[in-house]
Amino acid sequence: MTVLIEIKVPDVGNVAEIDVVEVLIQPGDVVALEQTVATLETDKASMDLPSSAAGTVQQVYIKPGDKVAEGSLIATVLASSEQVSAEAAAQQTIIPAETVSTPVVEKTQEPISLPVKPAPEPTVVEALQDTESTTRKAHASPSVRLFARELGVDVTKIKLGSGRKGRILKDDVKNFVKKVMTEGIVAVGAGIPSIPAVDFSPFGETEILKLSKIKRLTGQNLSRVWLNLPMVTYHEEADITDMEAFRNALNAEKAKGELKITGLMFIIKALVAAMQQFPNFNASLSADGESLILKKYFNIGIAVDTPNGLVVPVLRNVNNKSINELAVELAEKSEKARLGKLLPADMQGGCMTISSLGGIGGTAFTPIVNAPEVAILGVTRAKMQPVWNGKEFEPRLMLPLDLTYDHRVIDGAEGARFMAVVKQNLSDIRRLLL
Ligand code: CAO
Question: DSSP assignment of 334-368, as one string?
Fold first, then answer.
């Protein structure tokens, strides 16, 4: 059966206004399933919109510069019913082709005018998933940025693009490369020499494995943070013997199959209590580096290991939530993360991140700050250790903690004092009631 598929703007989180940056199809084009049909951009992120069907484009309802919202119609595609994605089928965007008349003419709907909401604050997801804030300033769509990266071009070096409002287009990247070739400009970021390519074939067999998108974007962001932030990691140990006894007692009361509480929930609470005492940790440095933006809310990002790479869902208003509520929320969000179902909104608005490897092992590590946050707490595996109590060695369960901070914002002594409070909170969780 032939069907007419409506390609619509998906749910991209709580975003009121989405700009159409680039439209890559026109009526009559043949598109493949998942082929990018348009590039959309919010204040905080860009996305390539994929086609939910393979077929022939019938009508295109948008043009660059339009403003759209969740559910706005982008285009219609005439496809055979087998060439339709499961999402399109589920969202009922399929119309039997016989029931509609679909002239193949280009038609652009009036731009939708939407109330402009203030932009949400810079967040964890942008830090992890926005590959280059500098490239975003350079006004280039993800496909152009990808093209530029493939050629090893830093798009920030292209001062002004020839597109609308100076947007950088593929031709600008090509022209830049030509200029470099003829004028001998070296396009290397911050003068840092790149690692030369090596031919491994003389040493044995190899296989090329493409990195997942999450891995590529995370890698770029981590490199950017690594180059921009002077980071220090401070190591501490907390005695969690009593906390663990309490946690085990709580879990023993739970019915079979009921969600168990892990130590991470207490760590989140202990961290937030310390952040309330040390406002500099709940802050971001302004873009010009002249001031500190202090946050009055307490949202904690939790690094979650997924088959596709690292993602950081954010638990909001942690100060107002119980340990049980946090456990349920983290279980839901980490499950969503592992299924690749987190929305941008689930990963936005973090104040500080926890990276817990304790379920796996380790004695210490040096996590990288999730900028624009100013600090991150690393956790590795708790271990029974002999601790001197003044008279004798006592077996105590010791939890290793690693705090990495942006030294432009946090002084060494402040970092040590902060960790002393986190440690106290964990060693005697009654303090969390104060
Ligand atoms: N010491 C000892 N045991 C620990 C522990 C610690 N510090 N942290 C967790 N555990 C135990 C838990 O109690 C649990 O034990 P049981 O199976 O007996 O109940 C087990 O380890 C597994 O815990 P978990 O990892 O499933 O749960 P969590 O709440 O501690 O962590 C989450 C949740 C989502 C953070 C974790 O699953 C995860 O993805 N961690 C990886 C994060 C990561 O990749 N960080 C690296 C970022 S930098 O590249």
Answer: HHHHHTT---GGGG---SEEEEE-TTT--S---PP
407 catalytically annotated: yes
Ligand 1 mean position, distance from CA 357 (Å)? 6
| CATH architecture assignment, domain 213-433 | 2-Layer Sandwich (3.30)
**CA separation for the pair 14, 75 (Å, rounded):** 23
**pTM for the full model?**
0.64
Tell me the C-alpha distance between 166 and 190, whole Å.
23
Hey, which of 356, 402, 404 would you mutate to test ligand 1's pocket, going by the most ligand atoms within 8 Å of its Cβ? 356
pLDDT by residue, tens only, the chain of 434 residues: 788 999 988 877 777 788 888 888 999 999 988 888 988 877 666 677 888 889 999 999 999 888 998 889 999 999 887 777 666 555 545 655 554 444 333 333 443 333 333 334 333 333 333 333 344 456 787 778 888 887 878 887 787 788 777 888 888 888 888 776 655 444 445 677 888 999 999 999 999 999 988 899 999 999 999 999 999 999 999 999 999 999 999 999 999 889 999 999 999 999 999 999 999 999 999 999 999 999 999 999 999 999 988 999 999 999 999 999 999 999 999 999 999 899 989 999 999 999 999 999 999 999 999 999 999 999 999 999 999 999 999 999 999 999 999 999 999 999 999 999 999 999 999 999 98
Active site residue 351: yes
- CATH of range 2-99; options 3.90.226.10, 3.20.20.70, 2.40.50.100, 2.40.50.140: 2.40.50.100
Q: Is 323 in the pocket of ligand 1 (CB under 6 A)?
A: no
- Owner of token pair 């009593």: 242
